[in-house]
What we know:
CATH topology of the largest domain: Rossmann fold
Number of domains: 2
Distance between the termini: 5 Å
Radius of gyration: 21 Å
Number of helices: 14
CATH architecture of the largest domain: 3-Layer(aba) Sandwich
Strand order of the largest sheet: 5-3-1-6-7-8-9
Structural class: alpha/beta
CATH class of the largest domain: Alpha Beta
Largest sheet: 7 strands, parallel
Helix content: 25-40%
Strand content: 15-25%
Number of strands: 17
Amino acid sequence: MSNVKCLAVRIALVHDWLLNIGGAERVLKELHNIFPTAPIWVLFYDRKFTDKFLPEATISASWLQKFPLIRKIYPYLFFLMPSAIESLDLSDYDLVISSSVIFSKGLILKPKTRHICYCYSPTRFLWDRNSEDERKGVLASLAKHVLRIWDRQASDRVDEFVAISENVRQRIQKYYRRDAKVIYPPAPNLNSTTIDQEQLTIDDSIKCQMSNVKCFYYLIVSRLYPHKNIKLAVKVFNKLKHELVIVGNGPLKNKLQKIASKNIKFPGHVSDEELAVYYQNCKALIMPQEEDFGLTQIEAMSLSKPVLALRRGGALETIREGITGEFFDDPIPEALADGIRRLNENYGNYSPEEIKKSVSQFSVENFRKQILNLIA
Length: 376
């Protein structure tokens, strides 16, 4: 479909909410770049964030936006979100593309409006992570049961699912009984970012020398939530005494800092330019968590860095064992420590050119081409 034909179709983009940057928000931004005149509809948003992240976008919100302190209290308002997403009036559009983390798939649209759902995963805390949820009790279980019913019914309203990985495609089939096409999300081109490394404050204490390869540290880039297994990495690196930098923020940051040894640093959230330098100067990326796809390993490999990942999820589709990185089988200290040992032993065999070449398919250009072909 040519750009001229695309402009003749009235298109809207829908996302759950816009409060901070994550992988889903980066994908939404690329969708906005493909369809710059398409308005973005959300449940609620932080204007300070969107003014900086999507300055040219037209953003509209549901009635949840009117709630005082919505940015802080939204985790307690999940029971209202199905009604809020269903209330959005998108009757003026021919095509709606939902960038769905949880609720956007549940739009109620007119028969003439085509709905393509770019799905990051079937709602994980309702389905495959249901037993891991720490929220117990009759009321919590009942609330999740009701949400599961809605989530399953909402999936029937989608005309076409697009999954971010084969891993997610299989889960869409299992939980929603729907087929899906796989279009991998685009990784930002960190090779194009530039920054004076003198501006980047990396503590000299994290510089190291390993296997005759000059390096600075191992790197983790992640939001700091329990299911990301960052606590596991902290415990292992406390014992190994290898230098580790953990980029990212989240509710566990203070707790992790309290148990971390001096060889572990927490710079928090950083800009894309700074992140590129952290990747460039690290020895390898550590991924202790299961990801639906995982953009961080693509970012690291695009800058020729090997990855040590948990042998689950999207990492199985992007990492070639012994060539672009290594796996460890279980999220336990012994397995992660053994993975670090194997990565160090094989470090001299990794080809930076081969690692970089392996992720060329995950480009912004490929993503754009596949999305345009999809709506043709």
